[in-house]
Amino acid sequence: MCAAPGRRYFMVGGKGGVGKTSLSASLAVRFANAGHATLVVSTDPAHSLSDSLAQDVTGGQPVRVEGTDAPLFALELDPEDAKAEIRQFASADGGKGVNDFMDSVGLGAFTQQLADLKLGELLDTPPPGLDEAMAIAKVVQFVDGGEFSQFDRIVFDTAPTGHTLRMLSLPDFLDATIGKVVRLRQTISGAGNAIKGMFGADTSTPDEAVEKLEGLKKKLKTVSELFRDQDKMEFVIACIPTVMAANESARLMESLKGEGVPVRRVVVNQLLPGGGASTTEAEEALAEAKERGDEKLERVLKGVLKDAKFMATKRKDQERALSIIDDELGSKGGLSVARAQLFDIEIRGVPALQFFGMSVWQ
Ligand SMILES: Nc1ncnc2c1ncn2[C@@H]1O[C@H](COP(=O)(O)OP(=O)(O)OP(=O)(O)O)[C@@H](O)[C@H]1O
Ligand SMILES: [Mg+2]
Asked: More exposed terminus of the chain, fewer Cβ within 10 Å: N or C?
């Protein structure tokens, strides 16, 4: 991950709360410490990158991460900006929706005919994932355009699974939809006046809206291509050792593979640390304390036994989940499985992220 030359993109995704933000931030710290100019970006509408880095990185521009000399920058993109950009297609004056839009591209007469495209729904209520896709497109534009071309490691902290999966299939869906509108518009522009009159289509309106649509289409195509770039992109699945998370991660892996997205590793986070008294040890000690009539020790050991039983049950659950992950994602899926321990402190700030990252990212 660190050694590969050239610009690389990493997306960390998975179920809610499994540690995507902590893992993304720690991976970015690791890259930066290895000398890569690194940008970590949150495209999750519910940001927590600032919390993870213990620093405000909102504001729409890469912010240098404090507390390290390494070349590390972070950025939280406001999904509202992307939504606003999408809404401008729906209506110039804010809210009349698809009819206005169709009028503005000179296709007012076709609004009904194009109903099956669900363009209205698309523009009035942007589908989940569209804001995230737009945010990613913006970052790609930043780093490809020269403004931030110094970055050679870009890590995306993504929204929980469902959102990410919808985002993956979005570009193709939008490509088809927008493509139809643009083609229809071109057909009408090229048609004779009589035909235009017959349909009541007004082609005198400027093609600005069509250009904007084409721009949107192009942006999403960039994202779509990047997602599937075998050399530049890697999607890292973040997971916790529960059967539910293991199953969801297996489905995520299948969907990613189905979409042609390069996925090579899964990180199982929040593994219970070893140590502590076993149930047998606690039971034996408790029996001895009872025999001796030591009531205080008996009380304490009852607590120890309760904790030991809890941990033993949890560990058994964890083992079951781990074997699913090892089988389904490791052996059958061909992914490398990395493990990260559950720590007794919250992982916040660069030193904590650095410590966390050292154990995860080998
Ligand atoms: N290995 C760990 N040890 C201790 N705490 C952890 C560990 N991994 C994550 N956490 C803590 O768990 C919480 C959730 O982690 P994080 O925010 O990284 O998850 P997420 O997958 O990004 O969540 P969301 O789906 O809400 O974006 C945070 O408080 C984080 O500090
Ligand atoms: Mg998060």
From this structure: C
**23 Cα: distance to centroid of ligand 1 (angstroms):** 8
Is there a domain that residue 62 lies in?
yes
Protein residue with its CA nearest to atom 12 in ligand 1: 19
| Best residue among 21, 240, 355 to mutate for probing ligand 1, ranked by most atoms within 8 Å of CB | 21
Query: Which tens digits make up the pLDDT trace of 19-67?
Result: 999 999 999 999 999 999 999 999 877 778 999 999 999 888 899 999 8
Is the distance from CB of 124 to CB of 215 less than 8 angstroms? no
249 lines ligand 1 (CB under 6 A): no
Catalytic residue status for 103 = no
Report whether residue 59 contacts ligand 1, using a CB cutoff of 6 Å: no
Residue-wise pLDDT tens digits, 162-205: 666 666 666 666 667 777 777 776 676 665 555 555 445 554 45
d(CA 277, CA 275): 7
CA dist., res. 19 & res. 83, Å (int): 26
Per-residue pLDDT averaged across 341-360, rounded? Answer: 93
Domain count, the chain: 1
Q: Of all atoms in ligand 1, which is nearest to the CA of residue 271?
A: 1
Using a 6 Å cutoff on CB, does residue 12 contact ligand 1?
no
If you average pLDDT over residues 211-220, what whole number do you get? 74
Q: Render pLDDT for 217-229 as a digit per residue (tens, 0 to 9).
A: 777 778 888 888 9
CATH code at position 172: 3.40.50.300
- Pocket test residue of 15, 53, 272, 347 for ligand 1, highest count of atoms within 8 A of CB: 347
Residue at 22 is within a domain: yes
Q: Which structural domain, as residue segments, surrounds residue 155?
A: 8-274+319-360
Is 296 contained in some domain?
no
Domain assignment present for residue 305? The answer is: no
Provide the mean pLDDT of the chain.
82
